[in-house]
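so i finally got all the pieces together for this one. its two components total, 951 residues if u count the protein bits. some of the lines might not be protein, just check the labels. i wanna see the whole assembly predicted at once instead of chain by chain like last time, that was a mess tbh
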Amino acid sequence: MRFRSAPAVAGIAAIALMATACGGGGGEDTESGAETTLVIWSDPERAAAIETAAQEFAETNGVEVDVQELAFGDIQGDLLNAHQAGNAPDIFIGAHDWTGNLVRNGAVQPVELPQDRAAALDETSVQALTYDSQLFGVPYSQENIFLMRNTELAPDAPETFEELVEVGTTLKEDGETSEVLSMAVGQEGDPYRMNALFASAGGYLFGQDADGNWDPDDLGLNTDESIAAMEKIAEYGEEGEGVLRRSIDTQNDAALFFDGEAPFFIAGPWNIGDADASDIDYAISPIPGFEGEGPASPYIGYQAFFVTEGGANSALAQEFLANHVTDADFILSLYEADPRTPVQLEALEEVSADDANIAAIAEAGAEGTPMPSIPEMGETWEPLGKAEAAIIGGADVRETMESAHDTIAEKIGG
Amino acid sequence: MASDSNAGAPGPGVPARTSPSGGRSSGSGSLWGQLVKISLLGLFTALAVWAVLPLYVDGNWWGMAVVAAVLVLVYLVYLSKRTVPLKYLLPGVLLLVAFQILPVLYTMSTSVTNFSDGHRGDKDQAIAAIEAYSVTRAEQGREFGLTVATVGDPDLGELVFLLTDTEGTPYVGDIEGLRPLDDATVDPGSGRVTEAFGYTVLTPAQVNARSRELEEFAVPVGDGSGIRANSLSTAYEGRATRVYDADCDCVTDTETGVVYTADDERGAFYDEDGQRLPQGWQVNVGFDNFARFLFNPTFASSFFSILVWNIAFAVSITFLVFVVGLAIALTLHTPRLRGKVVYRVLVVLPYAMSSLAMYLLWRDMFNTDFGLFNQLLGTNVDWLGDAWTARFAVILANVWLGYPYMFLVATGALQAIPRELTQAARIDGAGAWQAFRHVTLPMLMVAMTPILIATFAFNFNNFNAVWLITKGGPFPSNDPSAGATDLLITYTYRMAFSQATAEYGYAAALSVMIFVIVSVMSVISLSRSKALQEVDR
């Protein structure tokens, strides 16, 4: 008898044990449930700054702010999955060109800025976050690529791309450097960087309507202008001058410049820290366009705060975006943690006065175009990049561009 | 052999520690054993309760039933004295179901949907997003200072907006409409109402607690416009231009007059010209995803050329690592060789290093201008830019990383073969090659065949090997989605995660296909190797 009841005793004991364990846990739950916590996703570089800057907001509204760190590149994908699973953050930071994809997945809430708040921001930046006449995020900083030169080797900023190549080639022939220009192309191409030259030579990817909205139906890669532009670029490719080469990619482009192997470098704000740490004397200037053609037009990317759709704290999140992200003091404290060009006009003015690099980068971006934020844009990177890499490698320009055009048209048509 | 493989079911089961002999006389086992059993069962029950709570909140009765069934099963098995084999098998089986079978089933169920960007959620979510996204500020729309209040209780009372226009005149707005407000105190600094008779002004935290209601809340002011909150302290006049009508199952754009009708086959709203609204929903598309890569000419040609290369890739790597590994093992097996240990350590080195770092190193060594190969050889080969040299490069790098393992296994197997056998063959007049071919190799193959099958299956899905060196490239200029060195797994990954429009449904269909291919190949080779062993005996 004793043996037979043993299993039942064991079972009851197990359940009793579990019950006591849960009893302890349950008590804690009820105590911590009252406090509202606003969850923000940020990349590690800015997390601390956002946390500090958001403290004031938290105290005013009697809530807590929890900033969670994710790699910037992971935020979009993780957010879409988290939103679907119902455990997304209330606010997240992202790039303006994600807008189209976030909107089509219904993952963000529209933001309606009070008019005076919107007026305090750079107009193009607000336009960049607008999709289908609706604002979806509040921009706070911008970035664009520029030309960084080694002032010891090339004291003057080149006015044209031809001049850049001439100066660089002379240095290369004199044995001072081994490269003319360090511009990342890679085996897969880099349309983000290449757009500056592509636009200068008259090429275009998507047309724009009168209001500045991107028109996905007007895909321009197979137009004569775009093909002529790529032919111009191909002259500097591997079969031509050898200035643009697939062997230079984002892994080694900075090293070439910082080792003094290249006098010119197509760089971005993310290279400034390394540049300051290196022994190279550098200066920043706009990327020069081709002689007799339009100015080089780098893509401008904006970073923005977004509110997740369906979040439990959307009222506070909207309040944070409308009245804090647009605030000069908040933006300045973010700038101090991570020096990027602000789009809040008052903050930009204050920062440009002290930081020569910010002013120079802003000048380099003066001719820039906001990167199209329509979802169709995403479909162009791979095909266009691969086409550009092939053309720089010596492939037939017309044929390659037309086939890239058809590939993209097929993808965005469906 | 067959009985051995049963024991291979993983037995991480700590619970199996109780009453191992299971005889009738073993009874309740030791006291210590009982205590361990009780605490583990208690832990498991706690886990089940923890799992049930969110399911209960969601009202997912099926999920709760499954958890309860598993719990009952665990109790029955570990409290009964008759289910001894199950006590050992259950933990492994549960883990197998949770981490192997469920993902496969989930992938299969995804593969018949159009789950992709623009088709993630359900139809209601899509409609909610379409309506919410179409709210635009009315032309010359008014702006208001806002104080959110309720009638009565802050948590349950009806929401009202206490508004002030630009002149500072107070209004009250509720679902009925906008009315002037008389008994209100307006703060001259912020221009907002701070107190009003009959209404409870909410704190920011209280407003936030009612976020969901606030998102929907609009004070109607005629012709479809409404006053909505755009922060805790401001409101604006706007209108939704797209409205869903359940009767026609369509969305009408009140501004342009275009009607978008729901298409439940494709999961989106389409107008007459075939233009769709961006927000769609997930629908079942049957076997369309499979049909796409099997029958659609462009996708089928990518799929089958990748499949052929994938098999060639796995076969050639398996063959080459086997040949190289075995050759080195045979060389170092020579009895008179001095410094064997040093050589063996050197040979195993590539295996000891992180393969991720090694792949990146190999990629850099193949760089046209700055890479080691071209600089050493004095050539100017565009290694990763040409289809065949890129294929050569990924195979070379993988043979380098893969042969040490084969060498280790072969060395072990060789040492288990008595040298007398080879010597006897030599005395019988066999040459060195003949002795190897007919005596050593067959005995070696018994140990090596399963390893070779595993190597093949591993390399068939060797994602890192390709992704880190070439990312699947180089790509033909007319098809940037399928490269010369793409394996099915890298192709699938690009479809699901790396391209702009994530196509989970299509990628899941490809995964199912890979699963079928690898399973069929493994089953065939395993049954053939079994035949081989029986011949040997």
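Residues 145-298+373-413 of chain A form a domain with the D-Maltodextrin-Binding Protein; domain 2 fold (CATH 3.40.190.10).
Chain A has two domains: 37-143+301-370, 145-298+373-413.
anyway lmk what u think
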